[in-house]
Amino acid sequence: MTRQAQPSKGLLEALESVQFVVDRDGRPSGVFLDAAGWESLLDWVDDLEDRALVQGMAQRLRAGPVKSGGLRWDDLAQGWRRNRNTSREN
Question: How many whole angstroms separate alpha carbon 41 and alpha carbon 11?
Answer without folding.
Answer: 6
